[in-house]
Write a structure and sequence with these properties.
The complex is a heterodimer of chains A (112) and B (115). Chain A is mainly beta and 112 residues long. Helices cover 0% and strands 53% of the residues of chain A. Chain A contains no helices and ten strands. In chain A, the strands form two sheets. In chain A, strands 1, 3, 4, 8, 9 and 10 form a six-stranded mixed β-sheet that branches. The N and C termini of chain A lie far apart (36 Å). With 115 residues, chain B is an all-beta fold. Chain B contains no helices and eleven strands. The radius of gyration of chain B is 13 Å and the shape is globular. The N and C termini of chain B lie far apart (37 Å). Classes of the chains: A mainly beta (112), B mainly beta (115).
């Protein structure tokens, strides 16, 4: 059962920032938000994750709202190689294990 | 360092047969999870192993099973294959199963086609 909602598709001009939104209104206090992307049915590639604070790494930035009910992945300067399906995932943890709930993802197309 | 290795990459089986898929996690990683990806259902969690123990299982029939060895390598088995089992099977490894501990790295997957 997916616990996130993402727009099915988005376009972004090459060189511009790509802002990918995600709704996770039922997120619990101990659940992290992860972002992965998948290109041409290869294995998903990790991008970034966070709990409540904004996070930044060499690939992207993650902005989480104060109530944690939504987040935005920002690719600062999109390139053609960023064209992929982006998954926003809530990582559920239990005492006996954890799993990823994958949503439907957002198909991002970077346009030259 | 080497990534997650899944073998074989492609497989064609006949309905009713069984199949075993293999996953070698990144060296030092002890948690392995399996996922099924189909066009209709997307990515769905199958099961997770840590220290040779299944810690969690997704909503799949008993025909789907798995195990983990002492070296953290994992296998999953599907018995009595059905056409609907055709999918990309993905394995992910992480250091431990603790949430927020670290990212999980996915392999390239095994593409199973049931005919």
């Amino acid at each position: 059962d997916a616990k996130t909602t993402q727009p099915p598709s988005m376009d972004c001009a090459e060189g511009r920032a790509a802002n990918l939104p995600c709704n996770h209104s039922t997120i619990s206090g101990n659940e992290y938000v992860y972002w992965y992307r998948q290109i041409h049915s290869q294995g998903p590639q990790y991008i970034i994750h966070g709990l409540k604070n904004n996070e930044t790494n060499e690939m992207a930035s993650l902005i989480i709202t104060e109530d944690r009910k939504s987040s935005t992945l920002i690719l600062p300067h999109a390139t053609l190689r960023d064209t992929a399906v982006y998954y926003c995932i809530v990582r559920v943890g239990f005492n006996t294990g954890n799993q990823f709930y994958f949503g439907t993802g957002t198909s991002l197309t970077v346009i030259p | 360092k080497a990534g997650v290795t899944q073998t074989p990459r492609y497989l064609i089986k006949t309905r009713g047969q069984q199949v075993t898929l293999s996953c070698s996690p990144i060296s030092g990683h002890r948690s392995v999870s399996w996922y099924q990806q189909t066009p209709g259902q997307g990515l769905q969690f199958l099961f997770e192993y840590f220290s040779e123990t299944q810690r969690n299982k997704g909503n799949f029939p008993g025909r789907f099973s798995g195990r983990q060895f002492s070296n953290s390598r994992s296998e999953m088995n599907v018995s009595t294959l059905e056409l609907g089992d055709s999918a990309l099977y993905l394995c992910a490894s992480s250091l431990t199963p603790q949430i927020g501990d670290t990212e999980a790295f996915f392999g390239q997957g095994t593409r199973l086609t049931v005919v």
